[in-house]
Amino acid sequence: MNAERELDAPHSTPEQLGKSAKALLARLEPLHASLTPKERLAIPVQEMPSQDPISRRHNMDEVALGYTPEQARVEAMRCLRCKSAPCVKGCPVRIRIPDFVASTAEGNFADAIKIIRENSLLPAVCGRVCPQEIQCQKECTVGKSLKSVDKAVMIGRLERFVADWERENGLQKPPLVKPETGKKVAVVGSGPAGITCAADVRREGHAVTIFEAFHKTGGVMVYGIPEFRLPKRIVENEIGILESMGVTITTDFVVGRTRSLADLMQKDGFHAVFVGSGAGLPKFMNIEGENLVGVFSANEYLTRSNLMRAYDAENADTPIMRARKVAVLGGGNVAMDAARTAVRLGAQEVHLVYRRTEAEMPARVEEVRHAKEEGVIFHILQNAKRLIGDASGHVTAIECLRYELGDPDESGRRRPVEIPGSEFVMPVDAVIVAIGNESNPLISHTTPGLITNRHGNIVTDETGKTSIEGVYAGGDIVLGSATVILAMGQGRRAAAAINQRLAC
Question: For the segment 448-478, what is each residue's pLDDT rounded down to a tens digit?
Fold first, then answer.
């Protein structure tokens, strides 16, 4: 079938999961130190407690509820303590994963989060939204031994647990900052790359100012990722750590318009600039009807809901369309976010249309599963050919084509091939286009000499240095659309280069 509902899927309650973990920990704890690899492989993966699928369709509260202490310890005991630590190689910021997992297994959560924070300023964020299944967990020996990445040690869930434990117990402390150097660094954008770069540069004693175009900080973590997947209080808390380190944050400041990059360095006296402005320019399909009323980019739709809280109709000043039958075009995390938001805004039907199969979807497996549990109807091997409107210019339907998979393309995924004559019409009253983003050209167009590639992304060397002396870049503005942890890795790399430059 090309469409499916999973509202009736089995769902273990948090209470059931917690009780099971307590009983299992009681059996394992006395044997923990002497468990053999075979015995560790036999420990079952700990399911993440979550809201009931039917209940959560009607609220914006976080879906995944996090491990209990007992679940975290049991899951951590599954780790084989590999000497080669392949999971670390899969981590863009190189967290000492086996060490933090070992501390978690022992119940030493304070030591576990201390190890993580050596390399990551955003563990509560990364534990929630990063695609561990294609990074650290993909390399996990446990998953490979059991022949399924779904059975790897749940590193992301453990990271989230110890980060939440630290915050909930009031134990967060800002990183140590060295004596002031008198050097100034500007960071453009307060997303994951900018936050990470700012923290690492500030640690060395340099004065850091973040310039954010929006009225709130956090970048894509605030405007792009919904509350039910990443609560805004989590992001605000991490931003608060930056401020406690002495980082200055200036909002409503559009670099390239309010001030140019050249002005920041030549007039404002910044010794280096890091550009982490993201990729916030939405892509469209360039098909007939995309200008009809009721057709949105996922960026606009999610920004209205997330940043401006338009879902709270009684208290928000920003309107958002509440449609009855919504189609979302795309198969990535943004598409899942848009579809699941439409469900919560009261849509009777939400249809996700994707031109490949589910196996090729770039979205996280967990997000796909949650979308299905919430009633999103999946249409695979289909895509929009044109959008149809009425006499008043409102979208009323999509004309779709069916596809089959051909040979792999440059991404390694099998190329979708149109089936001639397979057109059909799907009635809708709203369409959300979620097929990716491009870099906003504002900075490149206002910065002579800044080299970009054909996609508009800033070109850098392996250290993050751009074609302009003293200017570095990282994150989506360099990579295109990437993950939070990859953006953090780029921010960390550029910070190291900036710190080396300013030490001379």
Answer: 999 999 888 999 999 999 999 999 999 999 9
Rounded CA-CA distance 362/368 in Å is: 10
Rounded CA separation 129/123 (Å): 10
What are residue 19's phi and psi, to 5 degrees? -65, -40
In this predicted model, what pLDDT tens digit does every residue of 231-271 receive, in sequence order? 999 999 989 999 999 999 999 999 999 999 999 999 999 99
Using an 8 Å Cβ cutoff, are 354 and 377 in contact? no
Question: pTM score, two decimals?
Answer: 0.91
Look at residue 1 and tell me whether its pLDDT is greater than 50: no
Task: Calculate ∠ Cα 409-414-419, nearest 5°.
Answer: 110
433 and 443 part of one domain: no
145 lies in which domain range? 31-168
Tokens found for residue 84: 């080669």
Asked whether residue 352 is domain-assigned, the answer is: yes
Which strand (E) or helix (H) includes residue 23? Answer: helix 14-28
Alpha helices by DSSP H, listed for 204-332, are 220-223, 232-244, 261-266, 298-306
Answer yes or no: do 387 and 421 share one domain: yes
Q: What is residue 242's DSSP assignment?
A: H
CB 289 within 8 A of CB 393: no
Residue 263 lies in a domain: yes
Q: Which residue has the tokens 């550029």?
A: 494
Say yes or no: 78 and 156 in one domain. Answer: yes
Indicate the angle between helix axes 192-203 and 232-244, nearest 10 degrees. 20
Q: How far apart are CA 192 and CA 200, in angstroms?
A: 12
Mind giving me the DSSP string for 270-316? Answer: -SEEEE-----EE-----TTTTSBTEEEHHHHHHHHHTS-TT-TTT-
User: Residue 63 in 3-state DSSP?
Assistant: coil
pLDDT for 126 beyond 50:
yes
Strands 430-433 and 325-329: parallel
Tell which phi-psi region holds residue 375, choosing left (phi > 0), alpha (psi between -120 and 50) or beta.
left
DSSP code for 309? -
- Pick from 63, 79, 226, 69: which is nearest to 143 by CA? 79
- Of 121, 138, 168, the last residue of a domain is 168
Would you say 273 and 265 are in contact if contact means Cβ atoms under 8 Å apart?
yes
- Torsion over CA: 250, 255, 258, 260 (sign): positive
Spatial CA neighbour of 153 closest among 226, 44, 38, 287 = 44
How crowded is residue 108: how many other Cβ atoms within 10 Å of its Cβ?
Answer: 15
